[in-house]
Specification:
65% of the residues lie in helices and 0% in strands. By secondary structure, it is mainly alpha-helical. This is CDP-diacylglycerol-glycerol-3-phosphate 3-phosphatidyltransferase.
Length: 82
């Protein structure tokens, strides 16, 4: 009985019948520089997002640390009373 074992090295059905290369995506070029203007704004937006995410992560870390310390303190207080 012959086994059919497919791997990533074999070609797919579409690759067997398509001899044309995949077309490259077309990029629109504008002559008035709006692409660079919007790109700059998007970059600034990402920078703001990164700062906000970093601040949020730091607050979560500090809150978690404070919460764990509170639990440790409560545990040690109850074990010392015994």
């Amino acid at each position: 009985m012959a086994e059919t074992n497919s791997s990533s090295y074999e070609t797919s059905w579409a690759d067997q019948w398509d001899s044309n290369p995949d077309p490259a995506p077309q990029t629109k070029k504008s002559g008035n520089g709006t692409t660079s203007k919007y790109g700059k704004k998007v970059g600034e937006g990402f920078e703001k997002t990164k700062v906000v995410a970093s601040t949020g992560a730091r607050k979560v870390k500090e809150g978690t640390s404070a919460g764990l310390q509170w639990i440790k303190d409560k545990y040690h207080k109850t074990t010392q009373k015994r």
